Amino acid sequence: MLSTIQAKMASNPLKIRVDFVLTCTTYEGVDVIREALLTAKHAVNVDGWKVEFKMIAPPNYKCEVVTYKKAEGEAKLLEAIKIISEVMKQKQGYFKQKSHPTIIGANKDEPDTADLLDAMKNRQDQDGEEDDSEEEEDNEEGMGDIDIENDLGVNAFDEEEDMEEKKE
């Protein structure tokens, strides 16, 4: 039942993004920024997650993740930002977060698919049985239940007898 619900509710994944600024004026400044980004990338890209780090234009950078689970995606981005901040601080670099995790793209107003599926599971657990409303609907739209032996509606035999009586 859950797979049919997922197929009906097939929504697009969310793209979540955080913008930040990185600068380092030490002799190895470029290497410090590179190390911070790679450290964060290797730390958060586990268990099937793919967090991407891109340079917009120096010193502006962005961190993005594509996911169906909004809360977990935001948590991954915040984890990456924290790691970058710590590495930059250790290496005497400058870090400033410019935006909070925000959903970008056309589907930013859509509800979170993971939340919808959890709500559906909870409803099914509370009811104790699956929703059979489609089967009931089909029965209501059709002819319904007919008792052929006791309730024929129009009796074909009576009509034939009536025709014979009219001929005589």
First and last CA, distance: 63 Å
Give the CATH superfamily: EIF_2_alpha
Q: Residue share in helices?
A: 40-55%
* Form type: elongated
Radius of gyration: 32 Å
What is the count of structural domains? 1
Q: Write down how many β-strands occur, each being a DSSP E stretch of 2 or more residues.
A: 5
Note the main attributes of this structure.
168 residues
Give me a quick take on this structure:
The protein has 168 residues and is α+β, with helices and mostly antiparallel strands.
SSE topology sketch:
Layout: H1 2-8, E1 14-23, H2 29-44, E2 51-57, E3 60-67, H3 70-90, E4 94-97, E5 102-104, H4 113-127, H5 133-141, H6 156-167
Antiparallel strand pairs: 1-3, 1-4, 1-5, 2-3
Helix pairs in contact: 2-3
What does this structure look like?
It is elongated and about 115 Å long. Helix content is 48%, strand content 19%. The protein has one domain (1-168): EIF_2_alpha (Alpha-Beta Plaits). Helix 2 (29-44) runs antiparallel to helix 3 (70-90). The longest helix is centred in the middle third of the chain and has 21 residues, at 70-90. It is built from 6 helices and 5 strands; from the N terminus they run H-E-H-E-E-H-E-E-H-H-H. The chain is an alpha+beta fold and 168 residues long. Strands 1, 2, 3, 4 and 5 form a 5-stranded antiparallel sheet that branches.
